[in-house]
Amino acid sequence: MSNGHGLSEEEQDFFEAIDRNTMAEQHIFDALSDISDEQYYTLFEVEVEHTCGPAQVQVYPERAGTLYRCLNCGMAGIIGG
Ligand SMILES: [Zn+2]
After folding, report:
1. Interval between CA 10 and ligand 1 midpoint (Å)
2. What is the average per-residue pLDDT within 47-65?
């Protein structure tokens, strides 16, 4: 519960998790900034700093976004393009 002077512990924990995930997704996005056209719609791996630490991350870039899965912690998702 918020005390009116800031975030509750639960809220802080929530927003920190969002921040970590957003940062990791930014790293993945950055790693894909210079890929060639042939790499779209193919599955390959990049090494990035994920929420779990340095990790190999599988990516599948599409024009509308990038599908990814961390091979270290198993988290998967889509980064909107
Ligand atoms: Zn991970």
Report:
1. 22
2. 95
